[in-house]
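Summary for the steering committee. One of the milestones for this cycle was to obtain a three-dimensional model of the protein with adenosine-5'-diphosphate bound, which we needed before selecting residues for the alanine scan. The sequence and ligand used are listed below.
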Amino acid sequence: MNLVFLGPPGAGKGTIAAKAKDALNIVHISTGDLFRSNIKNETELGKVVKEILAKGDLVPDEVTVNMVKARLEEDDLKEKAGYILDGFPRTVAQADALETFSKLDAVINFVLSEEEILKRLSGRRVCKSTGRTYHIIYNPPKVEGRDDETGEELIQRDDDKEEAILNRLQVYQKSTAPLIEYYRQKGLLVDIDASKSPDEVLQSLLKVLK
Ligand code: ADP
Ligand code: ADP
């Protein structure tokens, strides 16, 4: 099953994808995580995208599409029953490109109020090496400021600071929100209420996929 998780930053796409990938035996591919790992490893791609991510702008379509296409050709995909694309496509041009090399079964639209999005983004903390995501109130680590498994320090992403958050929400409205109608017209869109607890959101996702 090939899925896209669509929705504003902070809607819980990554959190639910991490749970759903095991339940559905599919691969979780987050373009944000792929970019961040390139930045951390100081690859050529990482150098190109570092400033773009810090500001909360979008990486150019061609760069992003090439990265996703290459990722979908990796071997782990052959052993699994499909994928979740989390954070891709984010523009109509990316969606058009995706159609030329893969076929989707459904697009899950995470619906959440702007008020709740701001609370989720401002409280988000991540472990830089594992990418595991926490929230200071909704999903706190066992020990404050430390990753549950590795004990490493949790950080706030640069783009989760106020200025970048406001920019990312504008970018979402302008460039990504049009994909809701785009996929609705193709009959692929499924809205889910992302305001519930992570387990409830997961259950409603599994139910609609049945
Ligand atoms: P969030 O989880 O808050 O929605 P992501 O981790 O998905 O954020 O993305 C972080 C950043 O990576 C984005 O703000 C953007 O700069 C870049 N990025 C991720 N996916 C894409 C994409 N499909 N197209 C362009 N840029 C992207
Ligand atoms: P996205 O990938 O859409 O940007 P994340 O999965 O990173 O979103 O979640 C954003 C923040 O909200 C994180 O701090 C996460 O722990 C928290 N979160 C995710 N899902 C929920 C939920 N259903 N209820 C409360 N908090 C959540």
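Key point for the committee: The chain is about 50% helix and 15% strand.
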